[in-house]
Each structure stands twice: as C-alpha cells, then as structure tokens.
Amino acid sequence: MVLISLYSYAQEIPQNEEDNFWRNVQFGGGLGLSFANGFFSATVAPQGVYNFNERFGLGIGLNATVNSQKNRFKSTILGGSIIGLYNPLREIQLSTEFEQLNVNRNFDENFVSNIDDNFWNSALFIGVGYRTNNVIFGIRYDVLYDEEKSIYAEPWLPFIRFWF
Hints:
Layout: H1 2-23, E1 25-36, E2 39-51, E3 56-69, E4 73-89, E5 92-107, E6 117-132, E7 135-142, E8 156-163
Antiparallel strand pairs: 1-2, 1-8, 2-3, 3-4, 4-5, 5-6, 6-7, 7-8
C-alpha cells in the first residue's frame, strides 16, 4: 500500500512541475537582414527565457550571422548568450547579456588585408528597454567593447526583442 501511494504521488508531481515550467517559458529573439553597395548581412538569433516571476527571467540564446562584401570578405559568426531580465515596472525592462561568438572571416585574395581570421569575441551588454505587450524596444551597451577587437562598430547597440 505504501509503495502504491508513493508511486502514485511521484507520477503526479512531475506532470504538474512540467506544466508549470512551460507556462513560464517564453521564446523569441531577432532576425536581421541588411544589404547595400555590395554588402550583405543576415542574422538569426532565437532566445528562450524562463520567467521566475513577473520581475525576473533568465535565458539562453543562439546567434548565426553571415556577412559578405563583394571583392572584400565573407564571414560566418556562430555562438550563444546567457541573458538576465529584470522588470522594475511593467513597461521597463533592464537586461544583462553575456555573448560569446566564434568569428570566421575569409578575405578576398585581391583585397589589401587578405589575412583570413578565426577568433572568439566576447561581449557583456547592459541594456534598458521599453516594453509594450510582447515587444521590447531599447538600447544596450557593451562594457567589454574594444575598438580593435570587437565585431561591433560601436559599444551602443539598439535592439528590438519579440517574445511569444
């Protein structure tokens, strides 16, 4: 009788915990596409966040980017991130995100700087955004930004996040 009672109890808890877990998970991320004067860039960056409550969330993300510029270079950027979210008010979202990306650049043999490159790029973003429903508009700052090493042109980057 005790074994049946424990077995029955053990079957119910995981199902309820799983239901509660998935109710607190949000998926989203971003897409990017840019082209002009022989330059092309495409990005896919999905994210998943677990919301502990209405104020705090923690999640992970992936990033895949392809860049090319005619007669200059082609690059592939792959990596991931860990993101923490805090909502002091319903409309305001503060974020911190650590991003680690592997950058593989192949320069055209006729380009002046034709040395191919493969390296890791780290960024630590602190951001603030305005939240309306499932969309957040904001700006973030890379505190690890190094003009000589960063893959980003500037430490300040605007963002738009979508959550479902």
